Every structure is written in structure tokens, then in C-alpha cells.
Predict the 3D structure of the following.
Amino acid sequence: MKNDSGSLLKVDDLRVYFRSYGQTVRAVDGVSLKVGRGETVGLVGESGCGKSTLGNAILRLVDIESGSLDFDGTDISSFAKRRLTEFREKAQMVFQDPFQSLNPRMTVGRAIEEVLYVHRKGDRMERRRKVAQLLEAVGLDASFADRYPHEFSGGQRQRIGIARALAVDPVLLIADEPVSALDVSVQVQILNLLKDLQKNFNLSFLFIAHDLAVVRYMCDRILVMYLGRIVEESPASELYDCACHPYTEALLSAIPDVDRSLSDKGKQARIVLSGDVPSPTMVTPGCPFHQRCHRVRPECKTNVPVFREISPGHFSACHFAEELMGKEDAGFRIPDAG
Amino acid sequence: MSTQMDNVSAESRSLWGDAWRRLRKNRLALWCLVVVVIYTVTAFYGEVQYRYYQFKDEQPSYQRPDLDSQYLAPSLTRVLKGEDRAGRSVVKELLRHPCGTDGLGRDVLARLVQGTRIAFLVGIVTSIIAIPIGVILGCLAGYFGGKVDDFIVWLYTTMASIPGLLFILAIAMVVGQGLLGVYLGIGLTTWVGLCRLIRGEVIKHKSSTYVTAARALGLGHARIIFRHILPNVFHIVIVTFTIRFPQAISTEVFLSFLGIGVQGEPSWGIMISNSRLRLWQGVWWEMTFVTIAIFLVVLAFNLLGDALRDALDPRLREAG
């Protein structure tokens, strides 16, 4: 997505800070990203690295410290809360926990219809019809509209959550770990549903996950996030063969692989990161990853690496990204999703 | 994809329906419900009677002194002309004083019915005053947090720091004697507990995903508070209502006993206050029946409140 005109969402140097008791948590610390029309962008990283906060910030669900959000040519970072309603017709979110994202006291039909009502879409009959259409679009029976969320399984609820998000005809869907709370067999169903919907509704996705196999299955482009920053960006096909950031290497090596047996020393062994994630309340000098990096060198502790393009479409924030690019041992085979 | 659709039961069940099912299993709660219904019907009958006398603009029978029948013990009949014990010729008058009469010859049962009416009026009107205050302030404090929360917490902490009865007395004095003073006094002081509970629950629900989802979907604050969060915390309102109802009744009894409450109408408090004068002379019935009436309604409401809490929020029982 090099041509700017083609990108639907452009995030520039976004920062989200949470302040409490005199401390500042830099949950998102200068993130820039683009999502093109019809594109699926994956966002991976370990727990607490700011993935979800970034997703929430893009939808303006949390307050932004600084930075700009450009959606379809409009700067939404300065939108007053009232005007956000228009924006929320175009960008929607699917949540991680399907058991908590639906109001237990509302029937499924009312929950979806309410969205249509708030956005003033159609009269009563039209809304009813739309609800039935949406439920069928996500593979549920239209008669389920009169039921309550607790009557459904996790996968079904996630479908309901997706139907509700689609009610406003969005063009961008931010999926915040949409399958991580589900059984593996159901995960694939939901992923396939999302893929189908992307085609049918012409959606762009920002797909947040910690499961690299899922991301590989879904995404065109992958962003790797660490401690509130993007450390690597790469086309999906390239990342898994040629990780150019030690953190991505470590993430990839953590994927279980049946081909890699314990005695198989010839191949790359699993990289175990030492230590914890540094507290996001502190500013780490140098590279934010140096305390845990297995390739750390003296300059990492003092110089902040630049996030730069090392091969077409492949960006990395490591001093030695070019070296990693050419390295032999960087490849990890991972099993395909499903 | 269609494999998803099997294991859904044929009949849709709401959470309220589930709660009712759980409540129905509780025998004791059902009996309490019956008692409460009987009281409610009685209160309603009392209201009709009261309106009837008002409409006819005459002194109600339960207020009219009848000096011939002072302090009659509970009985249905009275012997008018003598000669009994095999002497025959007995004329009995049908009296219908199953609970006896008081010092002015007024039927205790009729006055009890009126007392029920007043008790229910107090319970309902004070709830109508206190519950909206508690719910709305609690929702606002919990949802918006920050300065709004600070102010509301300050307000109810201040209210709670004043001894309740003093505050009620003060309000009743300002407004003047009578029911209005009782309504306002009790209504304006008893919202604190509910407000606290609601605030806490709303804080809990505010950070839940379904509220974030509602915000992401572009719903307004008012809609989120009253259509999404409130139904999820409403069981607290119901339970609080059943628990504060008997409290309001007892407070009214107490106020009337002190003479600041109801005037010129037979409230339970006034009846107790009157009956204590002749209690030592053996006039036991008025005091007895009033206390039984109060006891039953308070007990029924409290047990029902407990059962409702269990039925509406089963997690509480599992935890406890």
C-alpha cells in the first residue's frame, strides 16, 4: 500500500497515554500505520503491548494523546464526540469475548435493531428485515432474533457480534482478537466467515491477534507491535520466512511445530525471551527491546533504532535489520492455520 | 456454517423469566408473596373505603366514636338481653368486631385496614421519591466518574452522616405534620443506600465489553446508561424496594407514635400509641392485632426480598 490515495485509514504517530497516580503508561507510543481498501492488516504482539488500545484508539473509544487519524480523507482525531456517530457508521469493531460483548438483557434482534435505530436507518419494518438479512449473512437463522445471548454458544455469539458490527454497513472492521476466545474448530469457521464477508461487503480489516497462524491465514500485511510501538511491518508472505526484527523471530519461534522435534538441533531452537516486558511507565533508553533481545549489541542500549524500509514493503525497527534480512537461519516453518 | 444452529432450545427464555422460575421453586417466598398480595388488596380496599367516605363527605365509620361499645373484646356477637344458661330467650346482636373495639368504640379491624392503607401509601410514595433519586444519581456517578462522581459521593456521604431520624424529624417539622412530611422525610433520606449500590454496579458494568461495544456502535450516553446498563442493575432496585418498604412502614409507625406523622387518620403508629394507655387494664387486643399486622408485613417483605435477591442474582447465593 504505497499509494496514499488508496489507503482507507492512515494513522500517523498516534500516542495513547494513561495517567494514574502520577505515572504515565505509554500504551501506544508513536504508531503509524495504513490500511488500504479491501486489505486485511494483521496486528500481532504479546499481551499488554497495546494492540487492543490501538484498536480502541482508532475508533476513538479511548482518548488520544497526540497524533492524527485520517479516515477516508477526513481527520477524525479532532472530531468532537458528537460527530463521531457518522464515523462509527463506517468503522466498526468485533470484540474478543463474545460472552461479554452482548448485553445479556437484550434480545439479539433488539441489539442489532437498536444500532440501526440510532443511526436512523429505515423504519420499523425495514429494520426488522435488515436484522434478518444480517443474521442470515453471518450464517444464523433469522428466527434467532427473539432470543437472548445466553442461549447461544461462543461461536454463535461471535457471529451475532459480527452481524451487529455490520449493521451500519461499515467499510472498516477492527477485529480485536475475534477468535481467541473460541474453540479451534469454531475459530476456522469464524475466520472463513470473516473472509467471506470481506468479499461480499467489500470490507477492510485491521485484524488484531496474538496467534500468528491465524494472522497468516487472514492477512495481507502484518504489523508486529512491541511495547506500544510497531517494530516490524511486512507483507504476510514474507514475514514468516524472513523476520527482520529479533522480536518477530522470537514470536515466530514460539509457534509450535510438529516438524521441529526436541532432538533436531540442526534447525533453529526456540528463542526464549528473558525477563519481562519493561514497564510501559518508564522510558527505556535505546532500543525498547534491548533488555530482552537475544541479538543485543552495545549500541542497542543507547541508540534508538529507526523504523525504516529494508526491502520493498518490509519495514523494521532494528539496527541490524539488514543483517537479519540476509541471514540463513531466520526461516521458521509454521503449520498452516486450520 | 449451518452446523451452528442445532443446540438452541425451542423456547426463548429471558433472564427475568429465569428469575421467576427460580423464585417459584422457593415455597417460603411464594407464601410471602401471598401475604404481600393480601396486604396489597387490603390496602386497596382501604383506599376505596377512604375515597367513598370522602366522596360522601361524612365521617368515616372507623373514625366515628361509639361510646356504647368502648373496649369490646374481640367477638362477633354481643348478648343484649339476658337469661342464658338454660334460661333461654337470648337476643344476640351481630357486632362484627373480630378484633374488638378501641377506647372510642371504633372497630379495630376497620382501623387496621386503614392503617394498612397508610402504611402502603408511605411505602410506595417514599419509594417513588427515593428510588429515582438513588438510581439516577447512582447511574450518573458510576457512569461519568470524575467530578460528577465526587460531587454525588460527597452528597450522599453528607446525607449519611446525619442521623436519619433527626433528618426525618427536621423535614417533617418544616413541611408540617401529616403525611406529606412523612413522605418527604423518609423519601429524601433513604436513597443513599440504593445510590451506593447502583453506583458500584454501574462502575462494574461500565468497563464491561458490552458497554464498550455500545459506544463503538455510536450509541449515546443516555441510551447506554438507561437502556443497557440499567436493565442489568435493575434487580438491585427491586430487591431494595422490598427491603426498604417495611423500613419505611416502621419509620412511619414510629413517627406517628411520636405524633409527628399522620393526623386524624388511623395509622398503625397512632393505634399503638393509643392502645398502650389501657394495656395494663387488660385491653390487649388493639396492641396485639396491630403488632401482628406490622410483624407479618415486615417479615413477608424481608423474606421476599431475600428470595428475590437469590432469584435475580444467583451468583450471590453461590458465593455466600
Remarks:
- The interface with chain B takes residues 56, 59, 61, 84-85, 88-89, 92-93, 95-97, 100-107, 114-115, 118-119, 139-141, 144, 146-148, 150-153, 155-156, 159, 161, 164-165, 167-168, 189, 193 of chain A (CB under 8 Å).
